[in-house]
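REVIEWER CHECKLIST
Item 1: Sequence provided? yes
Item 2: Single chain? yes
Item 3: Sequence as submitted:
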Amino acid sequence: MSIKRIGISGMGALGILYGHYLTEKLGKDSVYFIMDEPRLRRFNQQHPNCNGKETDFQVLGDPGESPPADLLIFAVKATDLEKSMETAAPHIGEETILLSLLNGISSEEILGERFGKGRVLFCVAQGMDAVKIGHQLTYTKMGHLLVGVPEDESEKGPLLDEVCRLFDEIRLPYERDPDIRRRIWSKFMLNVGVNQTVMVWEGTYGTIQQPGPAREQMKAAMREVIQLCRCEGIPVTEEDLEYYVALVDTLSPDGMPSMRQDGLAGRLSEVEFFAGTVLKLAEKHHLELPVNQELYKRIKAMESRYIK
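Item 4: Structure as written out by the authors:
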């Protein structure tokens, strides 16, 4: 197959960032966003802006007579995945390749259960410092994608080849990772540390880039994930932690992770997919993980003040 028609579910920071790039490289007719009617009405009232440039996206609600997407990218919050799958379902055919940019460690499994795991590739989005406030997206670093298939799902190699061929053609920054499960857990470790720490300190990346208690709390939360990885048989190490801390240190100090952006906007955060997941796995393995327990408690208390 050849990827000619790309659908995107989600118009948050990553959806706009990659939607803008793909549209500029492939043209508006080849890339479209999928929305339900309420979101479509909001989009029609005001289009998003990307680094000072107004976007020009194709947006579809009802697919009508249009064919399914060749590649469908999920770029929603983990809290919105279930609803997003329902909206996207009419755009997914038997040969549609599915790619998730979501945080956490479960989206590929969830998509596989809903649409069949044979079409789901594994992906990690990292290194970007995109911040979306209202309809305005700004970033100084686009970051890159890591894509792959686990060894026990090698039959999906031809689908991965097609996606990599597309990314090469449009020069989208990416790497093909031979140990993608480890990479997903490593990125999860990063999210658990950075997103939650910046949230409770009500800060920015600069808050955890400088020596002090916030940075130490971030690393302690990440080390608790390493403990879980040992129990789960995933070879994430202190070396991986240092790699990701160094990566965060390259981001704009004025930027902020998605969880902090959710807090500022008064939205439900992904704490259940970060500390919530950590604590469930800790119970499974009979571990005490006090740093994530404290982060979970504090973030839930913060959310209770603005989410009714």
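Item 5: Key structural point noted by reviewer: The chain is about 45% helix and 15% strand.
Item 6: Recommendation: ____
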